[in-house]
Design brief:
By secondary structure, the chain is an alpha+beta fold. The protein has 3 helices and 6 strands, in the order ββββαββαα. It has 2 domains: 60 residues, no CATH class; 54 residues, no CATH class. The protein is 16% helix and 31% strand.
Length: 118
Amino acid sequence: MTTKTVMYGGEPYTVVDYGQRCVFCGEDTSFGSGNFVNRIGADTYDEETKEHRDGYGCPDCMSTECDRCDKSIGVDEDLTPYDVYGDDDPGEFSDGAFRLCDDCLTPEEKQLAEANNE
């Protein structure tokens, strides 16, 4: 792990290169860890330590929650209104949800998604 100090807006910031570890949880994302293929380049800023972390995000930290069931959705596996309605995207689903897992689509939403993605 290497560090350097940079000036931003007249304030000094410590930039820490996290290398192969997740910048959010510290999990190993190197080749052979099981997280290598699904890691995503990421950075974050820690308000407590005033530390800017640069490196990768592991799949668990980069996942989102389904707005209907709170199940974790992997990166690029979520479904939004655009995925279902295409150009007629209403901005959100009828219940106010925005990101859904495949299991939470209603039969009508599944049918629309299949028709719009052919």
